[in-house]
């Protein structure tokens, strides 16, 4: 397993179009996924210990962003499931149901969406404003392979609240860290 950190935010880069199958039986596009005040695109998977460590907070924070701030979220799984069976579409359905994901969980089977976005690891977060211009490319919080203790700063939640309110993300952002995407 290779641990990587994400590049710095390329402010105002446009969101790329996609059309991907979700575990809910629907196909999801950029326009269908976005919220009134923005969209959080998350590259995650099932097997990564960095993702497992944040699943509960991810669910809580994305629900707050959707319900209180008009920012929707979508999770994209781009790993090669032939390398990690835990990342299969069937297991994606299990995880989405187990955690009651308040966002679509979609499969990027060709890995073209991950490549278009420049995603490098799981988790990798791309926070867009209402105009779908990139404003955040940082971490959820200080969790690594273990969940951080209660009371730590929730970087992603605070940044995306700012995006919802002002259209702009914070200038200071701490990169996300996680397992490398498993390319075919």
Automatic annotation (TrEMBL):
Record-annotated Thioredoxin domain positions: 9-162
TM region(s), chain numbering: none
Pfam family name, one: AhpC-TSA
Q: Which PROSITE patterns match?
A: THIOREDOXIN_2 (PS51352)
Against PANTHER family, the record matches this protein to: OS07G0260300 PROTEIN (PTHR43640), THIOREDOXIN-DEPENDENT PEROXIREDOXIN (PTHR43640:SF1)
Q: What is this protein called?
A: Thioredoxin family protein
């Amino acid at each position: 397993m290779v641990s990587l950190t994400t590049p710095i935010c390329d402010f105002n880069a446009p969101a790329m179009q996609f059309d991907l199958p979700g575990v809910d039986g629907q196909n999801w596009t950029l326009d269908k996924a976005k919220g009134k005040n923005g969209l959080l695109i998350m590259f995650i998977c099932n097997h990564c210990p960095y993702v497992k460590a944040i699943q509960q907070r991810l669910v809580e924070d994305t629900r707050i962003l959707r319900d209180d701030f008009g920012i929707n979220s979508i999770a994209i799984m781009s790993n090669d499931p032939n390398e990690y069976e835990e990342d299969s579409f069937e297991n994606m359905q299990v995880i989405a149901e187990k955690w009651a994901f308040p966002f679509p969980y979609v499969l990027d089977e060709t890995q073209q969406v991950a490549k278009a976005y420049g995603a490098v690891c799981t988790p990798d977060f791309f926070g867009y404003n209402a105009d779908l211009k990139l404003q955040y490319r940082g971490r959820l919080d200080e969790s690594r392979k273990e969940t951080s203790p209660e009371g730590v700063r929730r970087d992603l939640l605070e940044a995306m609240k700012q995006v919802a309110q002002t259209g702009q993300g914070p200038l200071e952002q701490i990169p996300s860290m996680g397992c490398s995407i498993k390319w075919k």
